[in-house]
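Deliverable D5.2: sample structural annotation.
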Amino acid sequence: MSISRRMAMIFKAKASKALDRAEDPREVLDYSYEKQLEMLQQVRRGVAEVATSRKRLELQAQQLAASADKLQEQAVQAVAAGREDLAREALARRSAAQQQLAGLAEQHKSLQLQEQKLVASSQRLQAKIDAFRVRKETMKATYSAAEAQTRIGEAFSGISEEMSDVGLAMQRAEDKTAQMQARAGALDELLASGVLEDATGTGRDDIQSELDRLSSKNEVELELARIRGELPGGTSSKAITIGDEPLGQPDASDPAAQHVAQPRGEERS
């Protein structure tokens, strides 16, 4: 097969497929109905034209009949007046009129038959168009219902083009949201660990962080000493070292503290 023939076949196949997608059965049915109505109008115009011709023949026949009757009277009057020549002329014209009447009668009969056939055809076509219209509306309603049901099914299953776009957009939004949340969490952890500094200048420096750590440690040790002092036989007087300074050690400059710190043997002596 030559390249040109293959290209022609491919083009026809693609064109047929595109036309099939673009074709709407409802539009095709409406177009067919309109064409049938146009045909019915043409038949009715034909009936009207035949009826008009028949009526024209009837008027001509009436005129010829009236003329023949008048010629008959003139022939009688001519004979009464002794003018046979005039009587013969009148009778000759009357004979010609009668022959024309006979021809008109045949034409009139032919037109009547044609008119009857056209009327019958018009009636049959009208009945066919009425039946087609009912069937057309039924098919259109059925197709619309099937189309709506298909769209609903596609929407539920997510396979329609519109719903696929919506699903992809939703997926992209969820992915970006998860990415931003992960980035925000990572930045918070880096800022808290001190790896990153606050660019706005509102963050704490290393010295302040160390002071805060020591303060938190001192608070823990003080709370621990308090708990020990509340226990029976507690060791509240025991020196507790926090950092480089002892806690709980009596102050030598305080007399009350010196009195408490003296051994019991020395106090008795």
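Annotation notes: The chain has seven helices and two strands. The CA atoms of residues 228 and 234 lie 5 Å apart.
The annotation will be released with the project's public dataset once the embargo ends.
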